[in-house]
Amino acid sequence: MTALQFKDIHHGFGGRPVLDGVSLQVRQGEFVCLLGPSGCGKTTLLRLAAGLEIVQSGSIELDDQLVASDKLHVPPEQRRIGLMFQDYALFPHLTVMENILFGLGHGELSQTGKARAIWARNMLARFGLTSLADHYPGTLSGGEQQRVALLRALAPNPPVLLLDEPFSSLDAARRIEMREETAKLIREAGTSAIMVTHDGEEAMFMADRIKVMNKGRIVQSGKPEDIYLKPKSAFVASLSVMPTGFAKP
Ligand code: ATP
Predict the structure, then answer these.
(1) 78 burial class (0-12, 13-18, 19+ CB within 10 angstroms)?
(2) What is the mean pLDDT of the chain?
(3) CA-to-CA distance for 214 and 226, rounded, in angstroms?
């Protein structure tokens, strides 16, 4: 089954083309990385999937259901997609726990909500963040905030998670730590994910499959080792960096 599918997406801003016929699939439980340089259209593709941008041409399916085309736009809140975007900050006036449970609705928590609250407490314990449950985001380090943002995105148990450069604000050591934890957590949850990055090493480490993008097109698609060992162009070769001690979690 396909978790997320883009079919022949063309998109532009003010008459300037940004996406030029992008088709791609994320299979159930798969972790796909979109790897490409700044401005090649990666974020636009994720925004279209989330429903934050309206499709101009082509279509998008979630769980084999059409959610967007030139005639249909299912709003973001009805798409059951988790978001972890670089500019999608935590709510400063809510505590860590309130932030994580935000997507589960207000007032009395449902049975599902209660189960997710227990899940959230377990996750905070696993990340060593239990003592921060009642703290506000402003008092947390960058790495702690990113962990909370990841838990907030996963709390409603979305079938698909979209991640846009989620570690861009972290220093090198924290990035490595976070990418390992993130990949592990997403795989454990069985969530299908698509992550945007311009960091070849990050993509090689985290992805089941990599889609290399350039100038609004997917120029190569394959497993990390195929992208690394058999790049189809000098451009792809320039982006692929095998992580030290390469071993997927
Ligand atoms: P980065 O890695 O820098 O985030 P990206 O590959 O994610 O880059 P996009 O953010 O998708 O690229 O942007 C692709 C192009 O579309 C860029 O030239 C950007 O300036 C332009 N663009 C994106 N959103 C808009 C918008 N709302 N209005 C006008 N132009 C836009």
Answers:
(1) exposed
(2) 89
(3) 18
Amino acid at 143: G
Report the residue among 11, 22, 43 best suited for mutation to probe ligand 1: largest number of ligand atoms under 8 A from its CB. 43
Helix, strand or coil, per DSSP, at residue 79: coil
Average pLDDT over residues 150-155: 89
User: Does the C-beta of 43 come closer than 6 Å to ligand 1?
Assistant: yes
pLDDT tens-digit readout, 87-140? 668 999 999 999 998 876 544 456 666 777 888 898 899 888 899 999 999 999
Residue nearest atom 25 in ligand 1 by C-alpha distance: 13
204 C-beta neighbours (distance < 10 Å), count: 23
- The partner residues of 195 in beta bridges, in order of sequence, read 33, 163
Place of tokens 């001690």: 245
CA distance 213 to 198: 10
Q: How far apart are CA 192 and CA 81, in angstroms?
A: 10
Q: Does residue 38 have its Cβ closer than 6 Å to ligand 1?
A: yes
Query: Which of 6, 9, 16, 18 for a ligand 1 pocket mutation test, highest count of atoms within 8 Å of Cβ?
Result: 18
Q: Is the CB of 44 under 6 A from ligand 1?
A: yes
What pTM was estimated for this model as a whole? 0.89
Distance from the CA of 4 to the center of ligand 1, in angstroms?
21
